[in-house]
Specification:
about 550 residues; alpha/beta; 19 helices; 8 strands
Length: about 550
Amino acid sequence: MTDIEIPQPRERTLHYRIFEILPWALSVSMLLLLVVLSLVNVTLAAAFVLIYIFIYLTRAIAVAVRSLHGYAVMRRNQKLDWYRLLQELETGKPSDVPMVRPAWHRNQIAPVEGDNLHLKPSQLLHAIIIATYNESREVLEPTIQSILASSYPMKQVMLIIAYEERGGSRVEEQAKELVALYKDNFSYAVAIRHPKMSGEVLGKGGNITYAGRILQDYLQEQNIDPLHVIVTTLDADNRPDRQYLACLSYAYAVCPDPVRAAFQPVSMYTNNIWDAPAPMRVLATGNSIYNIVLSMRPHAMRNFSSHAQGMASLIETDFWSVRTIVEDGHQFWRSYFRFDGDYMVYPLHVPIYQDAVLADSYRKTLKAQFIQLRRWTYGASDVAYVVDKGFFHKNHVPRFDLIAKVARLTEGHVTWAVAPILTLVGGFIPVLFYPHNFTANLLPTIVSRIQTFALLGGLVTIFLCLKTLPPKPERYRRHRTLFMIIQWVYLPVVTIVYNSFAAIYSQTRLAFGRYIDTFDVTDKAVVSTRRQKGAAKNV
């Protein structure tokens, strides 16, 4: 396939528009179906609700099990001495240093496996692109410092601060000052200004793509093979775990085909979790646990937020899309069609720590959270793209795999919109129409019992919430920890208001052709001993 770009709005065909409408149509239909069934036959309505609730219960149990397993795997990976494992991979034999060596590593350094490496770890270079719009130095500098704290030699790391021209002179001066301050710590460091360009949506995709192309020119000048370069994209607040670079190097070196692969760490929204309001803490923790669960489902992995992809692979896809505000998840589909379905996202079971939503006032924080979820749920726009490229353009993508992925993608976005509403209030709809019907009156009781059982999975969430908390800042008293448990009373409200309503909003905009063509920057604040206002930042 030669064209993997999203068509401009004026270029979208009838079938493209139909599949842009599809997620909204399915979501609205599922919500209306309960009302229609309640009017037609209360037994059918009750059966519909119970079937959906049982599906929800099954998924809740699966999520609880996978989250515990995923957390255990992540903790084990954080404790491994990845850099020494890399050194042993380089030499093809174990060292004399006593250390934990997993079975998969012992197999890799065996003579048969070791000879299959495409390149040695010492041949790798990391390029880290930090995208920034108008973040303060308080937000951006700790990200650079977290990279420097990695258990990995910085002589193999290049730093690129990609800043927006529209951010103004302050952002430009800040980017150049940080590069000047830290450049001696890296093999190469540069600040790249992204100018406003026609045909691009205002967003991160255009920024990091522009920086990627400048990096490509630099590699050509230096005669550096793009196959030896791994590119990680970070938002301004993304702080990689100290084991991230070494773990990524290992995965890239042993990958069967690193060109047709991407690598996804676990996004954990815990940087400022103690400072965020309770509703935002609930959402941030839920998203962190969801990402842990995804890391245990490789078949469902997608590029998300901070991710890594080889430079050779990025050149093949012409970097990221400049026409969508969800360039991260969309990058999976660009790569999927560029490589005719022979593309995989490998999970890295180490975290990258990110910020929970926090603006400089409670009201602004509530609004900022909705803006963030609105942007994430706009990933429903990929449904039409995947159907169009997969079924209306010539390609060699395996049909069964394509159909399965389209179904999973569509179902995921519809569930995002309707699941909280159906599971939390669906059992009470039939009784509104039949207040004296036995079945209608019994349904809320049955649903409540099932939901109570499902809440056992919530205990796992609370457990992982407490386990993943960073140390409590000294400015907070001991009772703040108690609030981290009490906060979960917000779960039903925030799930409906932020997940369901944000998804329905995005799908409605998409269905009626009111495309979101600007990457709305999410306001956040930095909190210190004395609360200080921070700058807005990309998330």
